[in-house]
Amino acid sequence: MTQDTLNFIFIGLSFALYIGIAFRSKAGSTKEYYTAGGGVSPFANGMATAADWMSAATFISMAGTVAISGYDASRFLMGWTGGFVLLTVLMVPYLRKFNKATVPDFVGDRYYSKLARGVAVGCAIFICMTYIMGQMRGVGVVFSQLFGISITSGVITGGAIVFFYAGLGGMKGITYTQVAQYSVMAFAYTIPAIFIAMALTGNVIPQLGLIGNYTAGDEIVPFLQKMNNINTELGFSEYTSGKMSTLNMFCITAALMCGTAGLPHVIVRFFTVKDVRAVRKSACWTLAFIAVIYLTAPTIGAFSRVNLIEKLHDTAYTEAPAWFQEFEETGQMAWVDKNDDGKIQYYGPGMSEAGTFSVFQGKNPDYPTYEAPENQRIGKHGERLLANKADDSNPNELWFGNDIMVMANPHMAGLPMWVIALLMAGCIAAALSTAAGLLLVLSTSISHDLMKKILKPDLTDKEEVNYARFASFVALAVAVYFGINPPSAFIAKTVAFAFGLAASSFFPTLLMGIFSSRMNKQGAISGMIAGILFTFSYITYFQFLDGTPDQYLFGITPEGIGFVGMLVNFAVAFAVNAFTPRPPEHIIEMVENIHIPSSSTEKEKQDFEI
Amino acid sequence: MQNDNARAHRKSCLRLTLALLAVWFFISYGCSILLRDWLDVNFPSVGNAPFGFWMAQQGSIIGFILILVTYAFLMNRLDNKHGYTKEK
């Protein structure tokens, strides 16, 4: 059986499962559509949230980022898990008690203003949209590699599948689909790691292997020692030290953490459980499930880096392992023979963030068209040639995309074909589950908060669900368009964008809404607008216009600017609040009330007020 | 009476939250970023990994889970103490 057939079988089976689940749990009412009826068990909700949370970028690129930047990549590991602590202790129990289905709903009611609701809807749409575009792009890339179709058709296929089960099943459908998707992802991620850990360190548990010994070489050395040695020998910075400034590391980690705590699609996931107690329990499960993947990522990164260097560095191209050519074919790896010795040389600092010290000029490889004459496409050793000119200012000859570490891992370790098929299925599951979760938030923000609460208050329940389905169709169409024509070359860049915006808009507004009963609408609205404008313009200027790194504010990269935006939001909100009238009495009472978990004397409201 | 109870509950809840956030700050920003260099040198290594590096890549994540478990456990106890247990 060939690899392609196996891939088809694994992916086909997983799709059949997802769609079957979506069909069985078709949503009828708005309550089921928005919050799955509110009775999902904490365990299942934890799994679903974990799947929702783990995007294609996390699943495919994170281990690669760790492999390339070692300690510096801890900002992602900590940022994306530590945010859950903030989310759980500061946000969701109170928002759940408030009993509304969406985040803009809370903002609108708490700040007693349609304008606040409108701004929140705008932020939610923007955050979800930037995020979902990256996912659709990811789906398209995987599909195109898998089925040999163009990225365009890949994105469209992915979009159709997402629409089918998110639009049809609503929250109820995606919750149970995501449970299945999480299982696929977790197996797909950890199984290759276990095999490789056994091969390199003789330890079955990858996490212990990383801090254990390297046993595959001639002598037994501590694994991280080995890692540091090969890094410094080749001219990279020490793996365990990193080279990012402490301030930058701090700001980026903080922006990612606060962004996580302000992401609307993660917050609403906790509205699907029964009560505040279940929310806390569910958060524990969520983080535990996420940790399964996040504790494995650093091990995959380190192991595959050793594997990659040991197998490729100073190896003649003609003797390089077969997978190298497969990845050249798909444009994930490239070799430029600068010194003309027919051997692959990999030297640091390699691909840096600024894009300098690259193998070739420009950031991404560029290939001649298929119609080009053969001597422009194929080199004398049989390698795939690039259209980019070689950058001779450094001796490095090997280029690879971040994504390669996870995808090439089973190949590098010589694992059985079904593991590779499983990995493919896991990767698609990661992209689809996140896209579906985001799509749902987007469509509910439009149908519930924009249509029902602002534009057309007399909508019936049924009309509202139909509006939600229609909105998800439109949103998806836009996402597909941007998935085909991405505004930024890097998926990760757009995702960083979403986090910065969430950190600078929702996080402070929600936090003040919950913990400061004196915060009024003028303060919150001006804070939200100031925070998001600041962050948006900073990121746009440096990522998409012609900003250069030496113009950074205190040297903070666009990735970390969300943290500063958040401080701006707080400062503006409190300043404006001091000069404007205090909120009405019933709002203050309402804020007091969300701090009471549930009462034995007063009967708890069972239903959502939708 | 009900009001005093709610206020006492809110106060203990806030104290617990702040204590847990202090731990959260210490293990992530403290151990893994601000004090890392010092910890790498002066603390016993975990397996073969320097302490600060290990905290950044594995320790803090394990710590986060423990924080959430502690939070769920203590908050439930606090709710019970103040009579906010849901009727069966």
Largest sheet of chain A: 2 strands, antiparallel
Report the average pLDDT across residues of chain B: 81
Helix tally of chain B equals 3
So, CATH architecture of the largest domain in chain A? Up-down Bundle
Give the strand tally of chain A. 6
Give the name of the CATH superfamily of the largest domain in chain A. Answer: Sodium/glucose cotransporter
Our Rg estimate of chain B from Cα atoms comes to 18 Å
Oligomer: heterodimer
Show unreliable segments of chain B.
Answer: none
Low-confidence stretches of chain A: 599-610
* Domains of chain B (count): 1
Radius of gyration of chain A: 25 Å
Largest interface: A-B, 52 and 43 residues
Helix content of chain B: over 70%
Estimated share of beta-strand residues of chain A: under 5%
Helix fraction bin of chain A: 55-70%
Draw up the topology in text.
The complex is a heterodimer of chains A (610) and B (88).
Chain A: H1 3-24, H2 30-35, H3 42-53, H4 56-69, H5 74-98, H6 103-110, H7 114-147, H8 151-201, H9 206-210, E1 213-214, E2 221-222, H10 223-233, H11 246-262, H12 264-267, H13 276-294, H14 297-312, E3 315-316, H15 322-329, E4 333-335, E5 343-344, H16 374-377, E6 398-400, H17 404-407, H18 409-412, H19 417-455, H20 461-484, H21 491-504, H22 506-515, H23 521-544, H24 561-578, H25 585-593
Antiparallel strand pairs in A: 1-2, 3-5, 4-6
Chain B: H1 2-34, H2 36-42, H3 51-81
Helix pairs in contact in B: 1-3
